[in-house]
Each structure stands twice: as structure tokens, then as C-alpha cells.
Amino acid sequence: MDPSLPVPRKRPVPGRQPAPSMPSSSSAASTAAQFHSLASFDDMLKDLDLLRSDSSPPVSFPASSSTARRRIQEKNAVIPSSSSAAAPSMSRSMSSRSRTSESTATARPLSQVSLTSGPSLSNSSQPVSIGAQIVRGEREKREAERLQREAALAREREIQRQIEMRNKKEQERERMMEEELRRAEADKIRRAKERRLVEMTDSEERNAIVAARLGSGGIAVSRVLSMSKNAAKTSRLDESCIVPEYIDALMRTLTADKTISPTPEDFAGHDGYAVWETTIQKPTQEVIADLLFAKYIEPPKSKLLPAPIDIFFKVVEGHGLIAKEGRSRDAYCRIEFGQIPQPDTPPRTGIETFQTEVCGQSVSPIWNQHVDISSQNLTDLLIVSVWDQRKDDFLGRVILSVEDIVFACGSAGGEGFVSRWTRLDPRGSKFKDKYVGGEILLEMSLDMEKQPNLQDIKQSDPVAYIESQLVACKMNLKTVYATLLRSCLLLDISSNVPPPTQPRPTDPNASYEIIDLLSEESSTLLGVFERSWLIRSSTKSLTYLDLIFQKYKLYEVPIWALLNAYEDVHGQVKRKRSWLHENDKPVLLDILEEMNSHYRTQISNYKEYYPKNKPDEALESTILLLRMVFKNPIYREAHPNLPDNFEPEILDIMVRSSKERFKKLSALSAPLDENNVEEVIGGFSKLCELLVSDIVEDYKYFKHPFEIELDIVKLNSDVFFARFVAVLSSQFEGPLISSASIQKIASGLFGLLQSLRNFDSKSGGVRIKKSSAYRKFSIEDWMAPYVLKWLDHLSTLTIEWVTNAIKADNFEAMVSESGMGQTGEETLSHSSSIADLFTVVHKELDSIIDWKWTNDVQNATFIQKFAKTVYRAIENYCAVVGTDDDNSANSSQFTNFIKSIRLQKESKAPADITNESCVKLCNLEFALVKLDEMHKLMNVATLARAQKDYRQSMALKKNTSKASSALDDKDKIKGAFKIEVVYAENVKPVTKSGLANPYMVFRLPEGTVMPPTDEHAESNSGIFQKTTAPGVSVVLTGSMCELGRTRPINDTINPVWDESFSAILPPVSHLDVYLYSRNLISDELCGKTVIDLSGRLSRLRQKLTDHHTHDVYIEFDPQGRGLVRMTLEGEVEDVDYWFRKSRERLKRTQNDLTRALTVKISPYLKEVISKTVKEQSATGVSRGFFGGAMEYSNFTAAGVPIDQLVNPQEADAALSPLTEYLEKNLMTLVAVLSPALAHEVIKKLWDEVLLDIEHVLIPPLYGQLESTRRFLNKRQLSLCGWALSILRAFFHADGEALGLPYKILDNRKYHDISNLMTMYFQDLPRIKREYELSFVNGREKEMLIRLVRLRIEKQEEFTPAEREDGRKWVE
Predict the structure, then answer these.
(1) Which of 232, 693, 938, 1351 is deepest in the core (most CB within 10 A)?
(2) pLDDT digits (tens, 9 = 90+) for 346-399
(3) Terminal-to-terminal C-alpha distance of the chain
(4) Per 3-state DSSP, what percentage of the chain is helix, strand, and coil (rounded to 5)?
(5) Contacting residues for 1039 by C-beta, under 8 A, at least 6 apart
(6) Are the CB atoms for 201 and 583 separated by under 8 Å?
(7) Would you state the torsion angle of the CA atoms of residues 109, 115, 117, 121, taken in this order, to the nearest 10 degrees?
(8) Which among 62-66, 242-246, 900-904, 946-950 has the top mean pLDDT?
(9) Do residues 1043 and 1063 lie in contact, with contact meaning Cβ atoms separated by under 8 Å?
(10) Cβ(374)–Cβ(305) under 8 Å?
(11) Is the CB of residue 313 less than 8 Å from the CB of residue 409?
């Protein structure tokens, strides 16, 4: 007890209470809704007649029942309190008889929020009638429905607006894409025109040079090309590898090629195609075949001149020889002449060899030595090689044919003299020459008198003839080369199929090697024609790249071949920008554009092009190629708006791809009938499965190929989730809001969550490197809002769960298979409803546990919401099973009351405890055990600590010095409170009998402000959960201010409730407490008070922060006091809060049912004890009709003296019906209830026995004394003693089975009654002294003062003065 609180000790004078106030009947007409279950108003009057008893006066009704009926039927007709005497009379009569026996009506359990059962509480002391409550409730319901309709319409408009915005954005995006496609097409056409012009110019230049070569000889051509910066610097090729068999196979490949060639675009002039059609009249493939046949199959065996010619040949000097380690060279020249088929291995006989002098110590030697050569064969070769005498190092060579020399000198005119610098070339690859370089000056001339006719030589050469025809038609030789290259490639890949993966490099130390698909024969042959047709190195590489790319698109070559081809081009451009000729830039740009488009298509549809990421590394190579195209400077010059890095580019590609993929999957899962909800839900489930399968496939096969640029799993998850949730959200306002649909959708989405969390665990297990963005991505954060929405929806299903469980239950006891008692040694009996309810609850709980949520704060929020759902389910279940009568839960209070009276009148037999009532108690006990198991399974303690730590950290982030406290607000307190209502005494009587039906109501002050909640944490919901929103303050008014109320206790002014409830209080300075009396028509205010929490009037505010329970004594105005115990359990709502509330609700309902069981037995118990004691009272003797007050004899009605004590046989005979009745009912308890629960019920029955005996012995301290109550005689007192002893032995049962031990039976009440019997006939002064002594010692014996009051008021031997003195003493 708080010593700072005022503790009232002053008691009112017994018998001098204020006159009972008349209950108002302000709106009789509004009660018509309560009588709708009766056939007519006359039937109601007949039922009201049942209320009359022998000891009460008849009920006064209005004179005309038709008038009353008319008044009731008038809507909104308010009857003033002074309008008629009949209405108050009726109200008084009904109020005085509103006391319903607890054997037929169970007290209403304490409810945290009660909006319809009871008065609308406000600061006013005037209660509101039930009719007014119904009218106001209907108005509030209609207003709420109107607001819901408006909110639904607003949401529908918002959804429509969002759909329109999305459609507009989609249309704008499509328009931009179309515009982009038009621009791309225009650019493509422009580039094609530019490329055509460049191709024509380049072809004309090439044809002009080739024509000059054909007309003037090879040396002249070399001179022309030596003046060009882009001349091909290739050494003389060894054509020995080109065998006839290879040429024959290549010719067959050419003739089998069905590609249409030539086309008009293949000619440099507009008339070239027409000339071709009139002169050559063959496909390009056949022309090339003829050229190969003439050159390699049947070449001229010898080119003999009519007569030998003399050649004057001079080696003048050298320049730029390569010196080893910066030293000079001792160079000399070796000249070899004759028929030399293989220059790298010249024959040892049949050739002429010459050697110059050594020019020492110089890299620019001067020899000035000549040799005269005579030859008749144009195929003879002249090889000039430079050597170092000291090291015998090869420094380079020049190879010339006699034909070249003849054509060169013949074209020179005049004396036929030619002088030129020639580059020194290396030998074949097998020699690995390291020091080749520099140039050599050669001079040569012919004897013009013996000069042959050059035109005759040309006509005798078919190769030159075919080439001259191509030039004459203005054929683009690059096209001819491309055709030859295509056939060479087809031949090589058909004879030697390339492997799907790139072969290992020939050099083990090389990090990368360019591997060509062309064979050695093809490379040599192409090299010959490259020199002949002046094909530049860049042109050659681009033609090969384009051809490989086209073959790759047809799946004829592997990706690595394309990668090698592009790497060659990319590397050449990167090493030397001038390598790429200006005329080849448009060609490269077109190739890059086509590659970019193709790669984007492949990567966007990677699952179709590379199923299960096969072939190996193909997708990686494609991404690499796209990156290389993106990085290519030529491509970037043509697209200046490209981002600097490749990652944004491929991210944009993949985002678009993911969106298109979602559209495709949505189309695959779309329902046939969009109006069929089941098909729509099935479509969503299928879509969810497809999305899961798609992301699983991404994780298994495609995570690695994309990991450098992006995380494909995260990207697709982001896009899929966002669009999937958007689709779901758009359906939430429609038919898909039904329970079945949202449950099915939720299960699929949670399956998706589980799959994604498996991805994370797998990726962590194999240590795959994640991007920083992916590491920051949290699937749980993404899923948390929907989980909360699902949990909110789950809480709406509790009524359905309970309804289905109750409907299937016949409340027959069954033994739990796994449920153990609280001791762990006994099984629990229960019915199917509670097992079914917890089966449903555990099914949802298993889903939450299966999530294995790693974020403890979020998990605590989920468990808190789920615990709240469990509480609502338990509350609904308790509301159904927490009544021990057959009245419908939907029936009105008045109707149930009338039915109970009917049942009492129809059956006079004592009520027995039913199996159904016991099974309900067992169900509650089973629920408590299952709730404790659930508490352990959820690990609530750990989650509560996580919530507490999170709230403290959030408080510190808000720059507060410490975490939130219950005393943060000045003069106010907040937090989770447990309020226990113990008792009240001296309540203002309001009924005619001087009693009341009191219940207590706790409310927040009107206008209390609910502070805004944190949007990142679970709101401080409590009873205000539906009225608050994140970031918004709410002002509480009306029914929102109610915290809780107790059950009504009938016919008493000293109620004992022993009930508790929990509530989350916003910052408040006080609580309003109201005491009402429950009546049939309207409840009447008996008193009100305020519990100060500001600290200004008491120290309660400071003491509550120690989280201990504190007694709070409250004084009611105008009279009465009560005891309330308050405990601050925490500053905020946490996970454990709703578990505590669930336990409290189960315990409260268990106590109510236990009380209901005892109430069934209590009337008969009270009846038997009262009847047996009354039978031993003295008979009255009347003095006549006008004789005055009644006098009594000294004998009972049976003629036994009142001073003769009752013997054991008489007591047993009188109490045998009671013991037999108790035996029968206790056997029912023992057969159904668990030992612990049966023990508890039996203990409460013993408490009822003690209360009944106490009531027989003495009256209550407050209120009017019954007119029939008398001071007991000795025989009656002895019978009470025997009753106490016999029933004590009965409940003890020799200590066997469920018998109560003496330490429980002999409680304080028992000792007080025993002491009362001892003092019953003692002198009044002694009794007073005994009471005063107990009061001084701190153990007040209240029964003694009640005994004094009884003797003063009912014993006849006292004079009026003595009675007045006694009353003063009692006061």
C-alpha cells in the first residue's frame, strides 16, 4: 500500500445510506429494438410478470398497454422523466428485479474495448439508455460504412489514376522507342550511302593500280605501291603448300556455293554489271575457280623466251641493317640465280651463286658490285640475301623473278634501266629470323636489242587475262576476295570442324593467342591474292571478321572464333590507329552496328540463345564482345551519347529484358477468364512459380556470366518483385481481397521468399563475389511490408477460425495425444474446437518460423503482430465458450434475462454441473499449455530484447541522451500497464432493495492525444491500433478512450471482482474511473473518481517506474471506495505484451467459468443451509389483529426448544440432500477436469460454503438489513456449526483423491467464522473490546462489527438510547 495515498477509514453509518436514486428512463421508445425477439408487447408483459415474487410488491405498469406499445413503436420519441409517474415506476420495478441469479446468467468478462455492450461513457455522470446506444451505434455504423465507401472510391480513383499514369508512361516509352528506331533506320540508310561511295572510290583506285601492274609489270607496281603509305608489307609467300588436291577441293566448294554473286553493288561503276553480263556471264564463284585452275592446276610449265637475254644486275648499297646489341655489322651479299622452286631451301646444284665483298663495321654498307646474268626462262628467280660475316646472322633477302625484271625494265623505256630501294624480308617461319630489317638499293638493265614483246607475254598468261577482265568490268576486287575467303573458310570448317571451346595456345607462356580457322593452305592462297589484288591488311581482317560473324549467326562457327577475329581487329586498331584505312572505317562501323544489335538481342534473350548456359563460356564471350564493341573508338565516335562505362549500358539492356521477360511470363500465366477469381488466383500462383523457376535458373546457370557487369539474380528479382507486387497491389481493392485468394497468393510469394533466401545461402556457401549494390540488397527488407500486410489480413480471419472450430465441436472430452499438464505428468482432456483452433494457429506459425527471418527486429514485429492475432483468436474463443448458458451470443441482454427467468420458473430442480461446462474449462487449460509452448517456440524473450535494443538505438539516433522512458513527458506517464480491479465497498445503492449491480469502467481523459508512431517500427498499437497511422497524431474521443471494464456483480454494494486487464497508455496525466450499476433499460452512474498519474497529488507516478505492483485506493463521488492494483510492465508494447494479454484473457475466462460452475451449485447450497437454519427458528405468536408487533415463542415449528442444540444425526439428516447433490456434481468434475483444475473448482466451492454460512450468521456491513433477518438462536447457531464441520469433512474426504487438505480448508475465512460462532452470544461490551483489540493489532475482525450491528438492530432487549449509542459506535 502506498502510504502517500489517502486511505479512507471513515465508514458511513449502517442503515443511513442515502435514498436510492431513481434510474432514469430517458428513451423508452429506443428500447424497441431490444424486444424484437418477442412475439408482441403483450408477451413481454407476461414475461415481466415472472419477475414478481412473494417478497416484493407488484410491478407498476402504465394504465394502457396499447399506449405503452404506441410509445415504444414511436421512433426517436424521448419520454421526459417528469412526464408520467408510470414510466419511473416501471423503471424502478424492472431495475429492482434486474438482479439475475448467477446460476442462470454468467457475468460478462472484462473486455479491453467494449463499444456496444454498455453505456457510452463520457465525463458526464448521466448514463445513456440502451436504446440510445443502439441508435448511436447504428449511426456510427452507417457513418463508418459511408467513410469506408468513400475511402474505397478514393482508392479506386487513385488506382485508376496510377493505371492511367502507367499507360501514359508506357505510351511515351513506346513512342520514344519508335522514334529511336526511326533514327537508327535513318542512320543506317545514311551510313549505307556513305559506305557505297567510299567502296566505289576505293575500288576505282585499286582497279587502276592493278591495271597498271597488268600493263607494266611487277616492279612498276611495287614502285607505285612503295609510294603509298598503306602498302601491304608482306614477304614473298611460300606457295609450295598449295597442292592441287587442295585447289580441287576449293574449286568444288566454290561451285557448290549458291550465293548470288555478283550483284550490281559489287561493281565500282554503274555499267560494270552490264559489262559482266555481256562478257563474262558467269557467277563470281566460277570465275575464281577458273582463276585457281589456271594458276595452280595447269600453270605454264615454263615461260621460255625466244632467245636468251642478258641482265645487268648491281648491288649498290644497304641501309638500316639491324645491329645486335647496338654493334655494327660486317655485311656481305649472296646472290643465287636459277630454277629455285623453294626459296627457303634452294637446290645445291643447277644454280649460280655470287658473293660480294665484306663491308665491315657498318649498318649502311656500300658494295657497288655487279653481276651479269643470262636467262631464257621467265620463271628463273634471283635471290639477294644479306649476311653478317662475324656471327653468320641472316639480315634479310629480296626475291625477284626474271619475268618481274623483264616487265620492269621493258616498262621503263629508253635504255631499260631501273634503280630502286627494296625492303629486306625474312625467310619462312621455321627459321625464326631475329635481325631482319632495313633496305637495299638494286640496279638492273636489259639489252634492249634483245627485249621480247611484252604483249605476247601477257596473252600467254591466263591468270593475267582473267584479272584484266575483272578490272575491265570495274569489279570490286574486295568482293571477289570476300567470295574466295568464304569458300576457303567453308572448306576448312567442313574438313576440320572447330571445337566448341577455344583450343589451348601453342605457347604455354602466352596469356592469349589469336587462333585462325583458316588452314595454312587457305592463308597462303589468300595471301597471294591479297598481294595481287592489293587487299589491305585492315580490309582483310574486316572481311574475315564480317564473314565469321555471319557464320556465327548461322551457328556454323563457335563464339571463340568470332572473339578471336574481333580481337585481331580490336588489337590492331588499339596498337596503331593508322592501321585502319579511312575507306575501311564505314565497313567496320557497319559490322560493329550489326554486332551490337545481334549481341543485344542475344543477351536480352539469353535463356533462349544459351539454354542452361550452353555452350560453355558462350554467353560470357557474347557479353565480352558487346563490351568490346561498346569500347571501340570507331563505334563511340558514331555514338557520342554513350555512357562512359559499360555497366550502365548493359544494365539498361537487362532491365528492358527483364521487363519483357515478365510480360512474357505474365502472358503464359494469364487466366482465360479474367472475371473468374479462381482462374485469376491460379494465374498468379502459376506466375509466381514461373518467376521462381526463372530466378532459380538465373542463379544456377547465369549468375557467373553476368557477375562482372551486374548481378542478374538481383536485377531480375528486383524487376520481377516490383512488377509482381504492383500487379498484386492493383488487385487488393478488387475481388482478390477475399481470404482464399490472398492466402493462396501469400503462400506463393512466401515460397518465392524461401527460394530467394536459399539463393543467398548458396551464394554465400560457394563464396561468389557480390557487387556492393547486391550486398546492400535485402530480400527481407523487400518482403517485410507484404508480410505485415499478410499478418494484418490474418488477424481478420480469427472469427472464421473460431466459428469453424465451434461448429464442428460437440464439446465431448477427448484426451490430448501430446498435450501434457503443467506438471508434465498428466494428460489434458479437451474437445475438438480448441485443438482445431490451435492447429490453424500453428499452421500459420509454422509458416512464420519456416521463413527463418534473420532480421531480429523485423521478426519481432512479425511475431508481435502474430501474437496479437493469437490474442484475438483466443478472445473470440473465450467470448463464445466463456458463457455457461444456452443463450445466443447475439441475443440482447434483456431477452436473455427473460429467458433465464422462464427457465427458473419452469424447473424447480437444482442446477447440475454439465459435462459441457467442464469440457470448456479443460479447453481453456489446454489453451494455456499450448500458449506456453508457443511462447517458447517463438523465443519471445530474445525477440523482446531485440526490440528493446532497436528502440534504444533509434532513440539515440534522434539525438536523445537516453532511450524512451515512461516519464519522458512532464506530468504524464505512458507505457504498457496491467490494471487489477480488486473490490469496491459501500457502493451507492440504486435499486429499490438498497443494492446495486456494479461494474467499473476505466477511461482515458477525453481528448487524449495519441502521438505519431515510427513508420519503421511496429506502432504502439494496443487498443488504438486502428486509429493511429505512422507520422500522424490522433485525438481520442468517445469510445476510443475506453481502456476496459469489469463484469457486473449482481445484488451487492460490496463487489469483489479480482479481474485484471492490460493496456498501452499514451502520455496521460490521469485516468477516469466510473462505477455503474447494470440495469435492464439503462445503466446508472454510482460514482466516479480520478487516478492521478501526474505526481502532483501523490507519489504513484514515480513509484510505478520500478515495475512493481502498487495498491491504489480510490474514493468515489458521492460515496464508496475501491482497491486497484497497477503495474507498469514496460514503456512500450513488445512481443510479450500480447502473450500476457492472451494468458490474462484465458485466466479471466477460466475464472468466469469456474465461477459459473460454483454459481450453479451456490443457489442450492444457500437454499439448503438457509432453509435448515430457518426451520430451527422460533415460531411467531401474534397478539391479535390490532395487537402490535410480532412476538416469538421459545419453540421451533417442530416443537423443539430453541435452546436445545442440534445433534449430529439431525445435522446429517438435514444436510444429506446437500452432500448428495455435491457428491454428484463433484463426480462430474473429477471425471472430466484435470486434477489441478478440479482442485481449483472444489476450492472455490468451499469458499462459497463459507460465504453462505457467513451470510446466514451476519448481514453485510453496508446497506439496509433485510426485514426478515433475525438474530439466530442457539439451536440455529449449533446447526451452522454442524454444517461447517460436516462440509469441512466432506471437502477434505479423508485427504484422499481430490480432497482438499486442511491447510486450504482452514483459511482465514474459516477461522473468522469459527471465532464468530464463539463470540455470537457473548456480551456486547466484550465483543466490542475484542474488535477494538483486533483493530489496534492490525488484524481487524470485521465480522465482529457486523455482529454488533446485527444485535443492535435486531435484538429486542435494547432500549432506543442503547441502540443509538451502538450505531454511533459502529459508525
Answers:
(1) 938
(2) 776 778 888 999 998 888 999 999 898 888 777 788 899 999 988 788 999 998
(3) 24
(4) 55, 15, 35
(5) 113, 115, 120, 121
(6) yes
(7) 100
(8) 242-246
(9) yes
(10) no
(11) no
For residues 387 and 871, give the distance between their C-alpha atoms in angstroms, rounded to a whole number: 103
Question: Which of 1099, 1140, 1144 has its CA nearest to residue 973?
Answer: 1099
Contact present, 1156 and 106 (Cβ < 8 Å): yes
Contact (Cβ atoms closer than 8 angstroms) between residue 82 and residue 885: no
The single residue listed with the C-alpha cell 464463539 is: 1318
pLDDT range class, residue 335, cuts 50, 70, 90: very high
The answer to whether residues 967 and 1101 touch, using CB atoms and an 8 Å cutoff, is yes
| Cβ-contact 453, 407 below 8 angstroms | no
Contacts of 880 (CB under 8 A, 6+ apart): 802, 806, 889
**Per-residue cell: 1063:** 493496456
**In the structure grid, which three cell numbers stand for residue 375, read together?**
636467262
- Highest-scoring range by mean pLDDT, 22-36, 400-414, 426-440: 426-440
280-294, 503-517, 699-713, range with the lowest pLDDT? 503-517
Contact yes or no for 1120/1036 (Cβ under 8 A): no
> What is the DSSP-derived secondary structure letter of residue 813?
-
Q: What is the pLDDT of residues 652-664, one digit of tens each?
A: 999 999 989 998 9
Cβ contact 1062:1137 at 8 Å:
yes
Cβ atoms 771, 711 nearer than 8 A: yes
Among residues 893, 1167, 1160, 836, which one has the least CA distance to residue 1152?
1160
In this structure, which amino acid lies at residue 146? R
Residues 88, 97 contacting (CB under 8 angstroms):
no
SS3 readout for 1179-1240: EEECCCCCCCCCEEEEEECCCCECCCCCCHHHHHHHHHHHHHHHHHHHHHHHHHCCHHHHHH
Asked if residue 55 has pLDDT above 50, the reply is: no
Question: Which helix (H) or strand (E) covers residue 365, if one does?
Answer: none
pLDDT value of position 385: 92
Q: Identify the CA nearest to 1085 among candidates 1098, 1069, 1094, 1074.
A: 1074
In Å, what is the CA distance from 275 to each residue of 200, 268, 279, 283, 602? 16, 12, 6, 13, 43
Please state the pTM of the whole predicted model: 0.55
Q: How many other C-beta atoms are found inside a 10 Å radius of the C-beta of residue 1318?
A: 11
Q: In 889-914, where does DSSP find H-type helix?
A: 893-906
Q: What is the DSSP letter of 267?
A: B
What radius of gyration, in Å, describes the C-alpha atoms of the chain?
56
Question: Angle CA(76)–CA(80)–CA(82) in degrees, nearest 5?
Answer: 165
Cβ atoms 1177, 1170 nearer than 8 A: no
Neighbours of 412 (CB within 10 A): 20
Cβ contacts of 1077 within 8 Å, gap of 6 or more? 23, 987, 990, 991, 996, 997, 998, 999, 1048, 1083, 1084, 1086
> DSSP characters for 227-264?
TSTT----PPP-GGG--HHHHHHHHHHHHH-------G
Query: How confident is the model at residue 1012, as a pLDDT?
Result: 64
Q: Which cell goes with 548?
A: 565469321
Spatial distance between the Cα atoms of 327 and 236, rounded to a whole number of angstroms: 29
- Cα–Cα distance measured from residue 137 to residue 141, given in angstroms and rounded to the nearest whole number: 6
Residue 101: which region, alpha, beta or left (left: phi > 0; alpha: psi -120 to 50)? beta
Cell 563457335, residue located: 558
CA 914 to chain centre: 48
Cell of 989: 445503492
How far is the C-alpha of 207 from the C-alpha of 196, rounded, in Å?
16
> From its phi and psi, is residue 696 left (phi > 0), alpha (psi between -120 and 50) or beta?
alpha
